[in-house]
Amino acid sequence: MTVTYVSRLLHLLRRGLLEERYAVDIARDGEEALYKFEINEYDFILLDLMIPKVNGIEICRKIRKVNTSIPILMLTAKDAVEDKIIGLDAGADDYVTKPFSFSELVARIRALLRRGKLADPVILSLDALTLNPATKTAKRGDKNIVLTAREYELLEYFMRNQKVVLTKTQILEHVWDYNYEGLSNIVETYVKYLRKKLRTTPKDKELIHTRRGAGYIFTDE
């Protein structure tokens, strides 16, 4: 999630992060940010210090009361050492001062995401299918499955929500973006791609099942 009140900066950050293949959810003030944090699951938060209604420091403190592991990168025009200390003490993992290099920002995001994954090196599995979030690789039995970035994100979302019906809207919001405005059948298209790739042999079980009128469920039953 990206939180800032500057419309032009918000637009540039969203566009740039989408080009880097991140799904991006945006909030323009502190209240919206806290509400979205309560109802969604995020991998990373990019947080502007000076935002309306609830400032970045207070947001950071509230998030840390309920989640100590999600990476938070603070973004601000304030470059005083005291301000950086306050932000870090509130729970931010890193601090970038405006103006900044976008390539450096992305590098810092990648570093924080890697740090989080190393702390939780879980291997996801179902039937003979395994997925390693740390290396972003998948195998079925002894056969490697080559996936595009979006196919991988969809598979990981399914594997983290096994035996739960996921609606098309939930998949769009998590794997693509809240503000996705592309093809209306994009989920169906990628589910078709993924089903084909997961069947590495004719005997492999179908793992992605359609629940008519509801969505999809990932199960070997």
Description:
- The chain is of the alpha/beta class.
- The protein has two domains: 115 residues, Response regulator (Rossmann fold); 95 residues, Winged helix-like DNA-binding domain superfamily/Winged helix DNA-binding domain (Arc Repressor Mutant, subunit A).
- 43% of the residues lie in helices and 18% in strands.
- The chain contains eight helices and eleven strands.
- The protein has a five-stranded parallel sheet with strand order 2-1-3-4-5, sandwiched between helices. A four-stranded antiparallel sheet has the order 6-7-8-9, with helices on one face.
- Helix 4 links the parallel strand 4 and strand 5.
- Helix 2 runs parallel beside helix 3, helix 6 crosses helix 7 and helix 6 crosses helix 8.
- It is elongated and about 60 Å long.
- It starts with a strand and ends with a strand.
- 26% of the residues are buried.
Offer a few descriptive terms.
221 residues, alpha/beta, Rossmann fold, Arc Repressor Mutant, subunit A, five-stranded parallel β-sheet, four-stranded antiparallel β-sheet, 43% helix, elongated, WalR-like, transcription
- Computed CA radius of gyration, to the nearest angstrom: 19 Å
CATH topology of the largest domain: Rossmann fold
- Please provide the ordered H/E string of secondary-structure elements: EHEHEHEHEHEEEEHHHEE
pLDDT under 50 segments (min length 5)?
none
DSSP strand tally: 11
Q: What fraction of the residues are assigned to beta strands by DSSP?
A: 15-25%
CATH domain class name of the largest domain: Alpha Beta
Question: Sheet bearing the most strands, described?
Answer: 5 strands, parallel
Average pLDDT over all residues: 85
| CATH architecture label of the largest domain | 3-Layer(aba) Sandwich
- How many domains? The number is 2
Structural class call reads alpha/beta
State the fourth-level CATH superfamily of the largest domain.
Answer: Response regulator
Number of distinct helices: 8
Shape: elongated
Strand order of the largest sheet: 2-1-3-4-5
Distance between the termini: 34 Å
Helix content: 40-55%
Keywords: DNA-binding, Phosphoprotein, Transcription, Transcription regulation, Two-component regulatory system
Domain Response regulatory: 1-113
Modified residues (4-aspartylphosphate): 48
InterPro entries: CheY-like_superfamily, OmpR/PhoB-type_DNA-bd, Sig_transdc_resp-reg_receiver, WalR-like, WH-like_DNA-bd_sf
